Amino acid sequence: MFRSRSTKQTRERATEYASCKDFQRIFSEDMVGLHRLAFLLTADEAKAEQCFVAGLEDSIHGNPVFRQWARTWSKRAIIQNAIKTMAPVPPKHRPAQEKAAASSQNGSDPENVAATVAAWEPFERFVFVMAVLEGYSPRECSALLGCPVQDVIEAKSLALQRLADRPWQEAVAPQRDDTPWNAGFARAQVA
């Protein structure tokens, strides 16, 4: 008897849906990380704001989501809106070497790393953010981007190669704390 009451309460908690207030709290608490996610995907401040706002609206007015999944759903809503806005498509041909763009940024600021990623082609940028930073599988990326899995795998490989080709001083975390992107970019990478 005692056990069934506990099980019932656990099931009730597990089936609680996220409310408008839950999503508003998430977007307020994680504003920097979610906005950074939108910016890395769009590489444009105005489009990033549009994706952020549209993601909030979709989260609030979209399909009901379990409360435990609300943060993940918020990120996914931003990613889906960025895909609608940017419509990234795989390139028709793969360039042999594109190291010049990867090594053109100097310094170790996360801002420079973000600028490097923002300079990439939209498809490669989307795959990098989704697969590497957000941890989506190649199959999930493929489904969201509407392309073959092989294109996602190739774009992910190219993006990781570009980062690996950067001098190691540029890839390390910043040594100074006065960088405004310091906490936000790290949160976007982990989140």
Major sheet size, sense and barrel closure? none
| Count of DSSP strands | 0
Helix fraction by DSSP (H/I, runs of at least 4): 55-70%
What count of helical segments does DSSP give? 12
Unreliable stretches? 96-108, 168-191
How would the global form be characterised? globular
**Beginning-to-end CA distance, first to last residue:** 40 Å
Series of H and E elements:
HHHHHHHHHHHH
Q: What number is the mean pLDDT?
A: 78
Rg, alpha carbons: 19 Å
| Global structural class | mainly alpha
Structure, briefly:
The longest helix is centred in the N-terminal third of the chain and has 17 residues, at 45-61. With 191 residues, the protein is mainly alpha-helical. Helices cover 69% and strands 0% of the residues.
Report on this model:
The C terminus is likely disordered. The protein is mainly alpha-helical and 191 residues long. The relative contact order is 0.14. The longest helix has 17 residues. It has twelve helices and no strands. α2 runs antiparallel to α4 and α8 packs across α10.
